[in-house]
Each structure stands twice: as C-alpha cells, then as structure tokens.
What we know:
This protein has helices spanning 4-13, 69-79, 90-102, 115-130, 157-160, 189-196, 222-232, 252-257, 283-290, 304-318, 321-343, 369-372, 377-388, 408-424; strands spanning 36-40, 43-46, 51-54, 108-112, 134-138, 181-184, 201-206, 236-240, 263-266, 277-281, 348-353, 356-361, 392-393, 399-401. The protein is α/β, with parallel strands linked by helices and 426 residues long. The protein has 2 domains: 4-67 and 320-424, Alpha-Beta Complex (Aspartate Aminotransferase, domain 1); 69-318, Type I PLP-dependent aspartate aminotransferase-like (Major domain) (Aspartate Aminotransferase, domain 2, 3-Layer(aba) Sandwich), CATH 3.40.640. A 7-stranded mixed sheet has the order 4-10-9-8-7-5-6, sandwiched between helices. The chain has a 4-stranded mixed sheet with strand order 1-2-3-13. A 3-stranded antiparallel sheet has the order 11-12-14.
Amino acid sequence: MLFEQSHLQVTEGSAYVAGGVNSGYRTGSKPHPLVFDSAHGCELIDVDGNKYIDYVLAMGPMILGHSPKEVIDAAKKQLDISILVAGQTVIEYEAAKLLTQMVPSAQKVRFASSGSEAVQVAFRVARAATNRWKIIKFEGHYHGWFDNVLVSVSPDVSLAGDALNPNVLPGTQGQEMSENIVVLPWNNVEVLEEQLKSGKIAGIIMEPIMFNTSGVLPSPGYLERVRELATKYGTVLIFDEVITGFRVSDGGAQKVLGVTPDLTILGKALANGFAVAAIVGNEELMNFISTGKVMHAGTYNSQSVSMAATLATLKILKSQVPYEAIDDSGGYLMKELSKEFASSGIEHELVGYPGVFNVRFDSKGPTEYRSALKANRERYANFAFALLQKGVRILPRGTWFLSSVHSTPDLDKTLSAVRDVLKSGI
C-alpha cells in the first residue's frame, strides 16, 4: 500500500501549515500524517486512493458514521435559514431539552465549541461555588490542552516522583503552570480523601473510564466512594465524558455506572462531527452561569448549523436504534478479536463497551496510569501500522471506536486483516 501522494501533500502543505497538521495529536503517526480525500459510512479514502475501514472515527465523534443522512440533511436545511446570529434559536433549546432527558446530571445545559473550553467553565463554577481554588486531576487523564490542566497526562515516570504524591509535570514547552492543580493516582480513595481533608479543594475532575490511557476501568466501589467524599467535603465532582458520553450509553458512563457527578463535560459524539461541546450539571451550580456570576462566552457557541446537527444526532441516539446496531457489531468484534489474539498466543486484554473499547498487549488489570504503562505499546503500535497497510485504520494507543454503520462485511474484512497481520508476526 503506497502513501506517496499523502506524503507529497503533507510535505507541500507544511510550507503553509505548521508541521502540515492543524492539531498536535495528528503528528507522529506511521508512516506520516495521512491526507484524506473522502469519508462515507465507515470508510475513508486517502489521496492515494487507499480505502480504510475506519475505527478511529475522527477520534470518536462519528458514532453514526461519516455521512448520516438525517444529520447532513438537518445541517443543509439550516444553512438556508441561518448560520450564526449572535442570538438564540429554537433548535438549541430543543437540543438542550433532549440532553436533560438523556444525561443523569443534566438539569441545565450550556453549549460550547470544544471540550477544552467547557472544562474551563467547569473549573470556574467549582471555584465560585466553593470559594476555593485547587482542582484535583489524575495521572493519565486528559481534559484539554489549556495551560492549567495539560499536566501529567502522559508523564515520564522517571520524572513523576512518588506514585502516591506525583509531581505536577507540564505537557508542553511554553506552558504556564498553575499552583492550583493537584495531581493524584486514580482508583485510590485513601489518597483522595487526605487531599480533601485540607478543605482547599474546589473540584475533582476525572474521566469516569480512562480511555485516554489504556481503557482503565474504575475499581468496584471507587466512583461511589468518590461521590460520597465529594459531598462530604463540599467539593464539586466533574466527569469529563467527552469520550464516554454517548458512546458507553445515551446517558454516558454515569448512566451505566450509576454515579451522578455535579457537572459533566460532553463533546465528540454529541454532534457527530460538528464542533459542539457542552457543560451540563445540577441547577444550583449551573445557576452561577445563569446569573452571570461565572462568565461563559463564545462567538461560536450554539452556532445554528452545528445546533441543527446536534439536535438531529441526539434524536437518533435517543431512539436507541444506533446502540442496538453497535451492541451487536462491537460486541461481536470484541469477542472475535480476543479469540484471534489468544489463538496467536498474545497475552492481551480488551476493556470497555461495544461503542468504545481498548486493546492492550502483554499486560492485564491496570488500575491507574503507571500500571497501564506495563502494556507493550510498541508492539501494539506496530500491529496498528500493519493493519493500516491492509486497509484497517485503528488508533496506535489501543482505543477502538465503532459506529452504527459498521456492517458484518466490514467486521469480517477487519478480522481477516487481523489474522493476516498476526500470522506475519508482530
């Protein structure tokens, strides 16, 4: 499989676009960043004419596939009505109402343009509500690229210090570090409570399932205990469900796991590829935004076309029809992948749900970031590149995303490619 035109386009594009990409997370992929010509259903076609069955799905958003008719039709229709009005539209209220019906923590809603922005709003609300300033985050959890929270996402363990009291490490050069971020290991209730006893913690933010790092699940009872401690110590509990929201279920991980946070960050699959995020939460906290005590603004928030796409996506998801398809296809794929790895003698673990799961090699049972690093990441990255060359695109970090339009023939082709790669040895 050749990638000559992609390489040429990226090289020429680098004369105008810094690094040839418009997100730092698109660099470093083998053989180089790809340039795509089109995307339909669960198929991508690059500028070399190579076709791929897509399990990256734009890093998760395309839960209905790349070209869902209802969403596209809604966006096209809205283009003839309004694009951006610096005011309100009925469709944003309808979309918000659906969210309050679907997500357990959503009594009130504010739309934003990205998850990174919505996280910052949540921090403001937590600080305003508690009159405290410190926020707890966890090693290996990702909550956007802004200075105050891009810390200890994928830290070098040799620099990270004590596992129970990690050093707060920056994610990039040029970053202004905040003294108000506390980094802790996940799945450890005792360490968390010791911090909360200080009376200085405004909020706790976490991915309820660590899909940015090896698909680590919460230990039994952990989230329930965190919820109890947050209430006990008057701290705001924030779930970052940018990935898990609408992929684990139509109400996110919180619906499936039975733990309701005070605030939730949503994005990605919320609008099936349109630039929409949201912060949702209980009425008492959201009233800090309602009253203007906490400023939340943005020119492109609730942009009309994006809201039309959001409303159309939520209506489809609320019907449960996509989840029925994904449960079948994703469940089947998880089971068959595990069989193939086992028959090839590869120690492995599949963790997650039909709509989003994680595969790791040569490691089982991590409970937090550092134990997750024991997985053989290089071996898995080589596996991902070998699959790419056979027309199956997956993320080298191990996360697979399924859409409602992945069909049985797509899955069979994928498993055939997996068998071929495993036979060749990785």
